[in-house]
Amino acid sequence: MRVISYEEVEAKEVEEGSKIRIRWLNTGGSKNFAVRLFEIEPGGYSPHHSHSWEHEIFVLEGNGTVIGNEGAEAFSIGDMISIPSEETHQIKNTGKSSLKFLCIIPK
Amino acid sequence: MRVISYEEVEAKEVEEGSKIRIRWLNTGGSKNFAVRLFEIEPGGYSPHHSHSWEHEIFVLEGNGTVIGNEGAEAFSIGDMISIPSEETHQIKNTGKSSLKFLCIIPK
Fold it and tell me: What InterPro entries would the database entry show (chains A, B) (predicted)?
């Protein structure tokens, strides 16, 4: 058993100047999924892209918009966003503070 | 893509009078993991048990104690608790408010 604050896990800039940081929270243990904590600064956004793995996202802090195949949808704290595999998607921080969410993916 | 508040997902009492409610947040989509949101009322606790699947837990609100093979450890908001498969464990709400956490398991 291990208990750590997410702040003890190293935050890595996704790309230089991208306004997005990622922490891989479960570095050991789980065989078939990974839990990542993302922080997107105001004005920041993820690439508009698709891939073979699905996302299950839980919003911890802040406000944003997610763009999927059927348009844009606003979200806020306590929302769960499910993005199926191969759906093109993008997440934007539309608020004035940091947007924080967990994003769980298969591995 | 789907965006819903966790509060829109039905909360089920784990056992009658157990002070624990569970919501299965990703009912569709993900093939190999499940995201559950637990709420334990003050004074409530999970069974002291073990099983073949691991837990990755992210604490959303409240305070508690987790008991594992090497004793008890306190936790609070923003903590990540990793419980390997087969480790006997128990979670207790030691605070005065509801304890809320996400618990991700393989499937």
Answer: Cupin_2 (IPR013096), GPI/OXD (IPR051610), RmlC-like_jellyroll (IPR014710), RmlC_Cupin_sf (IPR011051)
